[in-house]
Amino acid sequence: MSVYDGGIEAFKDLGVERTITEIRDWIVSHYPNNWVDVSTALADMAV
Fold it and tell me: DSSP class of residue 1?
């Protein structure tokens, strides 16, 4: 699973607009020790 997949999963699970911090916290709690920093990937995904 890529960090982008984790981000998409977090967006789907949380269901509403969230901050990068909230999405990052969700990813870290569900996939600890997988990625060092997810903020750049999440920013790349922002529309």
Answer: -
Domain locations in the chain as residue ranges = 3-45
Tens of pLDDT, residues 9-43: 988 999 878 888 888 889 889 988 887 778 778 77
Q: Do 3 and 38 contact (CB within 8 A), yes or no?
A: yes
Q: Going by C-beta distance under 8 Å and a sequence separation of 6 or more, which residues neighbour residue 20?
A: 39, 42, 43
CA atoms 32, 34, 39, 41: torsion sign: negative
- Which helix (H) or strand (E) element contains residue 40? helix 39-45
Write down the pLDDT at residue 13.
Answer: 92
